[in-house]
């Protein structure tokens, strides 16, 4: 049976749930238009680039990726992440995580 609001073919058993979805969407648009809720993603200026926070982990990954790439030149991106995470876990066990976090906090790069 076609939906009266959007024209999609909907099984009769699912029609009530589908129509409820239309009501929820309508209510949400009403609440946003009254200014009670801010729509997501509108806070940042469109021209502002997203800036990722520099962490010890990110700094470590950035510095070790070429080394791991040389060791495993045929590794897929998923395998590269596995190798990098294994190396990071070894750093954490060795107690060097705090050193990387300190470098990241101070803005130093390896």
Description:
The protein has 110 residues and is an all-alpha fold. The protein has four helices and no strands. It has helices at residues 15-33, 56-71, 77-93, 97-106. It is elongated, with a radius of gyration of 25 Å.
Oligomer: single chain
The geometry reads as elongated
Q: How is the main sheet built? A: none
Class of secondary structure makeup: mainly alpha
Q: What is the percent of helical residues?
A: 55-70%
Give me the count of strands: 0
Contiguous helical run count: 4
Order of helices and strands: HHHH
Q: What is the mean pLDDT?
A: 79
Q: Calculate Rg over CA atoms.
A: 25 Å
User: Which spans have pLDDT < 50 for at least 5 consecutive residues?
Assistant: none
Proportion in β-strands: under 5%
Distance between the termini: 63 Å
């Amino acid at each position: 049976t076609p939906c009266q609001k959007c024209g999609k073919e909907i099984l009769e058993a699912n029609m009530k749930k589908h129509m409820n979805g239309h009501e929820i969407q309508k209510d949400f648009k009403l609440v946003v238009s009254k200014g009670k809720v801010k729509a997501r993603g509108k806070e940042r200026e469109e021209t502002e680039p997203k800036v990722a926070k520099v962490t010890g982990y990110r700094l470590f990954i950035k510095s070790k990726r070429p080394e791991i790439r040389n060791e495993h030149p045929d590794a897929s991106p998923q395998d590269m992440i596995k190798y990098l995470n294994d190396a990071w876990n070894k750093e954490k066990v060795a107690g060097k995580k705090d050193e990387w976090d300190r470098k990241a906090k101070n803005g130093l790069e390896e």
